[in-house]
Amino acid sequence: MIVLFNKPFQVLSQFTTEGDKSVLADYIDIPGIYCAGRLDYDSEGLLILTDDGRLQQRIANPKYRKEKGYWVQVEGIPAGSDLEKLRRGVELRDGLTRPARVVFIKPPEVWPREPPIRERREIPTRWLDLTISEGRNRQVRRMTAHIGFPTLRLIRYRVGEWYLGDLQVGEYRIIGK
């Protein structure tokens, strides 16, 4: 079974409770499924869940180079040369990242975030479509910060061949049994 879930902001990618934080069990009541990869507490969007251990490994393990696509709202206005650094790979504390695919995009049509991002009138923001083929801890956020443009909002819209599509925030869809 494969379950596509649109994970809300500030929900842990786990079923067991941890303090007063929201978890997947608050949204999904399907026994025997597990996350195939993770999304940080402060990231939103597509999370794949499955009851198939081999599929889970093929999705989550970086050696399979499963591409993940993100809409990233950054603080400031990067130049094309800034994006070129991401395309070549950037040196983080845990090593050089694989090259990313990244382009500027118009703000995507997405749900409002609760709470909203911090807006500062004097500092503009820009949206990027960024695709990576690895999944280090907080990788996209660390990559944009490395080039001087901190991530304000991060929405994963694709994992491999699976897309967020029209799933509303907090909703899931079973696509395979």
The CATH architecture: 2-Layer Sandwich
Classify the secondary structure makeup into a structural class.
alpha+beta
Radius of gyration over C-alpha positions, nearest whole angstrom: 16 Å
Q: Main sheet?
A: 9 strands, mixed
Name of the level-1 CATH class: Alpha Beta
Total helices: the number is: 3
Mean pLDDT: 93
Order of helices and strands: EEEEEHEHEEEEHEEE
Portion of residues in beta strands equals 25-35%
CATH superfamily: Alpha-L RNA-binding motif
Shape descriptor: globular
Please outline what is shown here:
By secondary structure, the chain is an alpha+beta fold. It contains 3 helices and 13 strands.
Commentary on this structure:
14% of the residues lie in helices and 34% in strands. The strands form three sheets. Strands 1, 4, 5, 6, 9, 10, 11, 12 and 13 form a nine-stranded mixed beta sheet that branches. A two-stranded parallel ribbon has the order 2-3. A two-stranded antiparallel sheet has the order 7-8. The protein is of the alpha+beta class. The model has no long low-confidence stretch (mean pLDDT 93). The relative contact order is 0.26. It has a single domain (2-176), classed as Alpha-L RNA-binding motif (Alpha-Beta Plaits). The protein is globular, with a radius of gyration of 16 Å.
Write the layout of secondary structure elements.
Elements: E1 2-7, E2 11-12, E3 22-23, E4 34-35, E5 44-50, H1 53-60, E6 68-75, H2 80-88, E7 91-92, E8 95-96, E9 101-105, E10 125-132, H3 139-146, E11 151-159, E12 162-163, E13 172-176
Parallel strand pairs: 2-3, 5-11
Antiparallel strand pairs: 1-5, 1-13, 4-5, 6-10, 6-11, 7-8, 9-10, 11-12
